[in-house]
């Protein structure tokens, strides 16, 4: 989710817990299947009198959090709301853990007491996460607080089956006179943190321009995207499933019998619908002080992708966006199927946009309970017309919502029961809950 320069500058899981939570929460989503919503999705969009979000007939939204709202810790909601995850807290409560893609020059919403890094050794860097605790039935906000701070450009991330959010820094920044720490890491935030967590970088998961993450609940393997024009797709094999801080092995995907360059910029090398066997290349020196992890991986045979963005785990398969992939450079969506019983993984090009009316620069994505993809657009033009796009299992795209303000929709994620879609409007930060016939 790299910004256009002209527009916007704990864990004790078991195998049984993986299996149970995989079936119950919005951490895993739904299989890409099921009845389509109709030939034109849910029908034409109806203009919002409030000028925020156009939706189809039968859908509505309510604002649950916005920039400047006072939180329970005395801070206010900061700006640039980006990736977000929804997790079940039990007892009829759910939590939204929300990224804020802030850089050191952005406002923090008050004086943050602690965090990973400081500016000039003084103020805690503003990047990080906030957490919103909601009553699952009424969607009433019961608590809001800062849950991570001291980081830079927390872009996307992913939920885990053991009840946490992996928040990713999309910033490879080296230590300098102004900052003591290197940046470009993944951090873990428990959904029930209750306040600021100790910001510990998961360095074994690599230092690069992180975008999003998704966990396979069967294995605990974490899949990671990278927002660079010559990015790789990574996976992290934890030493102990559910305990990422104990380390593990980082690998990059290679396509067997297919192109090393999947971007299709110069030729249609990656054919839509063709499943290729995938293999994984071990990576070394993953803390990458020279920011060269992707180039070393590509030299070893890893496949190149066009700006990896949102990634989401469905039922035995993952989907991830590549923002400007394809011949038209409007975006691609890939499908990755982890192998079962020791079999090879498979990867295919699921969708490639050929027109802005299909989708234009896909970014965050999730899967609805009826099996449709929900994709957030992030256009890079002076004047934007960003939508949520639905894509059926048959590969038919349709407009699902239209954001009427000059910013991007981000952080789309469903409640555990699949009945509510939570969404961020990036700037000014606004989080909404969208209800409607999602399962129809």
TrEMBL record:
PROSITE patterns: PROKAR_LIPOPROTEIN (PS51257), TAT (PS51318). InterPro entries: PhoX (IPR008557), TAT_signal (IPR006311). The keyword Kinase does not apply. It comes from the Bacteria. Keywords: Signal. The keyword Signal applies. Residues 1-22 form the signal peptide. Pfam families: PhoX (PF05787). This is DUF839 domain-containing protein. It comes from Allopontixanthobacter confluentis.
